[in-house]
UniProtKB/TrEMBL annotation:
Listed InterPro entries: DUF6691 (IPR046513)
Native organism: Actibacterium pelagium
Designated name of the protein: Membrane protein
Transmembrane segments: 41-60, 80-98, 104-130
Domain of life: Bacteria
Swiss-Prot/TrEMBL keywords: Membrane, Transmembrane, Transmembrane helix
Entry annotated with the keyword Transmembrane: yes
Length: 144
């Protein structure tokens, strides 16, 4: 059941990203090009997503537990640290350069575009590098 619900949720997310234009790097880059060929239409996509998420979280968090788990798994830390800021910067710069973010690139894999495949390969390398650095930092903290 959990796998089926995950598939349905991912399918809805991917369709929404694709239909909204968030999987189109040209549209995303035009959104960021305020001084040039600015396309403000993605503001409505982001605003709509924000409203749905705001309402959805309020409704879901009224439950004692999720449908397919014993407890909710939400971040507990409210600390704004170098790791959070650095990750945000890497995400934003990568999105601005490539026109893709992970949520937009993964549904676009089906197009077979070389740009998408290169981005996804770089994404995997970045994830593995981050995990390696995190493991090393934890080991160093444990040894000291």
């Amino acid at each position: 059941m959990r796998l089926i619900l995950s598939y349905i949720g991912g399918l809805i997310f991917g369709l929404g990203i694709s239909l909204s234009g968030m999987a189109n790097p040209a549209k995303v880059l035009n959104f960021f090009d305020i001084a040039g060929s600015w396309d403000p239409s993605l503001i409505f996509v982001m605003g709509g997503a924000l409203i749905v998420t705001f309402i959805g979280y309020r409704l879901v968090m009224r439950r004692e537990a999720p449908v397919c788990d014993k407890q909710f798994h939400v971040p507990s830390s409210r600390t704004i640290d170098a790791k959070l800021i650095g990750g945000s910067l890497v995400f934003g710069v990568g999105w601005g350069i490539a026109g893709f973010c992970p949520g937009g690139a993964l549904p676009a894999i089906g197009t077979g575009s070389v740009d998408v495949l290169v981005f996804c390969a770089a994404l995997v390398v970045g994830i593995l590098l981050a995990k390696t650095l995190q493991t090393r930092a934890a080991a160093n903290a444990h040894n000291n």
